[in-house]
Amino acid sequence: MIIEIGHFAVLLALAVALVQMVLPLWGARTGDARLMQVAEPAALAQLGLLAVAFAALTHAYVTSDFSVENVWANSHSLKPMLYKVSGVWGNHEGSMLLWVLILAVFGAAVALFGGNLPETLRATVLSVQAGIAVAFLLFVAFASNPFTRILLQPEGRGLNPILQDPALSFHPPFLYAGYVGLSMAFSFAIAALIEGRTDAAWARWVRPWTLAAWICLTIGIAMGSWWAYYELGWGGWWFWDPVENASFMPWLAATALLHSALVMEKREALKVWTVLLAILAFSLSLMGTFLVRSGVLTSVHAFAVDPQRGIFILTIMVVFIGGALTLFASRAPILKQGGLFAPLSREGSLVLNNILLTTATATVLVGTLYPLALESVTGSRISVGPPYFNMTFAPLMVPLLLALPFGPSLAWKRGDLTAALQRLLLAVALSLIVVVGTFTLYVRGPWLAPFGIGLGLWVIAGTVSDLAFRVKLGRAPLPEVGRRLVNLPRAAWGGTLAHAGVGIMVIGIVATTAWQEEKILTVRFGERVAFAGFDMTLRGVAPHQGPNWSERIGLISVSHGGNVIAELSPSKRIYDAPQQATTEAAIHAAWLGDLYVVLGDETADGAWVVRLYFNPLVRLIWLGALVMGLGGLFSLSDRRLRVGAPRRARTAPNPVPAE
Amino acid sequence: MTRRQRRTVLIGAALAVLGVAVALVLVALRDTIVFFQTPSDIATKPMPAGQRFRLGGLVAEGSLKRGQGTQVEFVVTDTKSTVPVVYRGVLPDLFREGQGVVTEGRLEPDGRFRADTVLAKHDETYMPPEVAKALKEQGHWQGEAKQKSSAQK
User: Fold this and answer.
1) Are residues B4 and B57 in the same domain?
2) Which ipTM was obtained for this model?
3) Residue range A48-82, pLDDT digits in tens
4) CA dist., res. A339 & res. A598, Å (int)
5) B59-90 pLDDT, tens per residue?
6) Taking a C-beta distance cutoff of 8 angstroms, is the pair B32, A384 a contact?
7) Do both B122 and B76 map to the same domain?
8) A594 lies in which domain range?
9) Does residue A82 form part of some domain?
10) Co-location of B75 and B17 in the same domain
11) Of A42, A644, B52, B89, which sits most exposed with the smallest number of CB within 10 A?
12) Nearest residue of chain B to residue A300 (CA atoms)
């Protein structure tokens, strides 16, 4: 019964979304306030209905109702409760339901907090949001219905064991919140095109939504990378896998959008570009959904192939991206030209940021789609792997990172490079010293690595010294410095933190990539092995029974300088349902790096294969992502950007249309 | 600077970055892409020795041999032709005889394929699309209907 209510709620939500798509837009075009006022209650109703649908499916999972096909195929009565709940979105149908639910959350947020938006803009935005909802609700209702009933089955087939993991339980919701959050930027962009006007106020409304989506994407991607690192047992943290790229491209575009919206908000420049970027960012999200959900890609993530669904999502994608770009082409020329600025200025540096980020996005896009294109044209099957991305993406990041500390140090309109350089002199010196120091420590190379470390440090030191300059550190008495620190806008803190996070991450990436040690060997019980400065001994391998798996656990003691510093227990698990083997790596985390141990198979003569990694500074990668996310939160809490903050007196109640 | 000059600088910078990127992409696509081959492809038209490529197919039943230390040998087949594979390292969890597999490496002069990567898959019912396609082309695989259920990240 509950399941049928859920199904019915989805269909009702579809009907509500249809109304919300048509009436408010009509009202906005004809100036009918009553029609526009339909939007808010409709958006809230949509959220309510989809929450009911989602709760119904969750209820079926929690109570293990195996008369629902989706539950039967993806759950098991003996699964721990956390994974019963996360199983709701651990499959195609459920995850699409989560997608539309998050979309409704964002729509409802506009309805609730958008009180300070001009009436027509709010109505149009909610209309466009509803349009996206209609497309995806059609998909959920008719091509991937999670509420299909089957004959009651005695037991479910279980959730893929590698998905039974705490980090991965929350990875999809974050990622989806990021993907779907970009729909807000999209809806605002379309509304701006329909209304034929954009201004600083528009950018100020778009930015918090983009920022929120960006934070979710950052955290979601970092969680996925962290999960892949410890769960897959390959010792790697990023594989340039097509599905990883699918989430990375929207992130890159959203990062560019955050920066260009800044120019628009402060200087009313780059209007057309910002609108285009908002469209592109969500288009990349849609493409990501398509790539992941259609199974067209060879990927460690692509699990099932269903061409029909692929075609459905492809249609949605073509309609929205094609429609948006057509609208852009016809309406963009009427948007008013923005202010003037010198190439050497804050605006100029943000433009450089945008050029480099979008070009980098394009190289990732080419690498991701090229195999598909080539196969459909010539029929030959190829794969584009990490070497391609290292050769194209990485070189584009170097000028970006070099230029990064200059950006905040340059003034708006007309910047002074010499003055900026003077401020950053200490950071330059520090980075150069570190480059030379690292070089002498690792004379045997790789010779690019010291520069990479220096680059990461340059970003951190440059960012921090800009902040230090702003609070007059060293040039004013300490109490004044303290007062200035406290009075600094949160957005300034946010920017500093986010940029420092980039630097931290760069150092982690460079160190791990350059100096990772890997060894695969066979060991016998009691045998001592030297690796990366540690002495390791395999003490034994014992069987063990978990709640829904059985495993063999190896016991390895690790000593350093004669003292035992850790006991590691990597294991090989066989899950009960489905019967599937997984590797549980054991990780000893230290300041300088991770010791990462994987237990392999038993050899014919009774020894064990063991794979050892030492990953220097690898944790900085996720720490960096966390700091970036934190920076985003700081920025989001800035008064200027707060959603629903009272409008400043300066902003006209109704922005004057562009001529 | 006039508006026009400023715009020229902007467009120039954008074009310069784009040009560099296009050059990088072209070089990278020439040098780093890896072709996918089935055992039959190799039987009809062998890849030049030393060229890196991906070999995909099924792990032949009864072919897995654990050798000295971490060395393993197995045979990849598409039921028409076979290629023996040598690999040093830990096999992925889902590696099993009779299952689909994708390996990456080079052909040795003696005709064996020395793999440095054996790709792990997340799901036991999952068949790498290239393998499925290659097998389907030869009329040996009708697995899709059986595998309606799915698990996704």
Assistant:
1) no
2) 0.80
3) 999 999 999 999 999 999 999 999 988 888 888 89
4) 58
5) 888 888 877 777 889 999 887 888 999 998 77
6) yes
7) yes
8) 517-619
9) no
10) no
11) A644
12) B121
Residues of chain A with C-beta less than 8 angstroms from the C-beta of B42 = none
How many domains does chain B divide into? Answer: 2
List of chain B residues whose C-beta atoms are within 8 Å of the C-beta of residue A87:
none
Instruction: Name residues 383-412 of chain A within 8 A of B (Cβ).
Output: 383-385, 387-388, 391-392, 395-396
Q: Is residue B152 included in any domain, yes or no?
A: no
In a domain, A414, yes or no: yes
Looking at the structure, do residues B28 and B102 belong to the same domain, yes or no? no
Write the DSSP symbol of residue A64: T
Q: Quick check: A498 pLDDT over 80? A: yes
pLDDT at residue B153, rounded to an integer:
34
Distance from A642 to chain B by nearest Cα, in Å?
32
- One domain for residues B63 and B19: no
Closest partner CB to B32 (pick from A385, A578, A580): A385
Within an 8 Å CB–CB cutoff, is residue B124 touching chain A? yes
A95 contacts: CB under 8 Å, gap ≥ 6: A89, A172, A176, B152
A325 has pLDDT over 90: yes
Nearest Cα residue in chain B from A156: B149
Query: Phi, psi at residue A196, to the nearest 5°?
Result: 75, 25
**A247-304, pLDDT tens digit by residue?**
999 999 999 999 999 888 888 888 899 999 999 999 999 988 888 776 665 443 444 4
Q: Which of A7-11, A312-316, A356-360 has the lowest mean pLDDT?
A: A312-316
> Which A residues 574-633 touch B at CB under 8 Å?
578-583, 598, 600-601, 603-604, 609, 611
Residue A586 lies in a domain: yes
| B18-59 confidence digits (pLDDT tens) | 999 999 999 998 888 888 888 888 888 877 777 888 888 888
Judging contacts by C-beta atoms under 8 Å, the chain B residues touching residue A391 are 24, 27-28, 31-32
Closest residue of B to A604, CA-based? B66
Give the integer Cα–Cα distance in Å for A587 and A566: 10
pLDDT at residue number A188: 94
Residues B115, B83 contacting (CB under 8 angstroms) = no
* Residue B88 confidence (pLDDT): 85
Of B93, B94, B152, which is closest to A90 when you measure between CB atoms? B152
Q: Which of A285, A442, A267, A282 is nearest to A350 (CA)?
A: A267
Domain ranges, residue B86 = 35-143
Do B17 and B90 sit in the same domain of this protein?
no
Residue of B55, B94, B139 whose CA lies nearest to A575:
B94
Residues 55-114 of chain B whose Cβ lies under 8 A from any Cβ of chain A: 66, 69-70, 88-91, 93-94, 102
List chain B residues with CB under 8 Å of A360. 21
Cβ atoms of A653 and A124 closer than 8 Å: no
**What's the alpha-carbon Rg for chain A, to the nearest Å?**
27
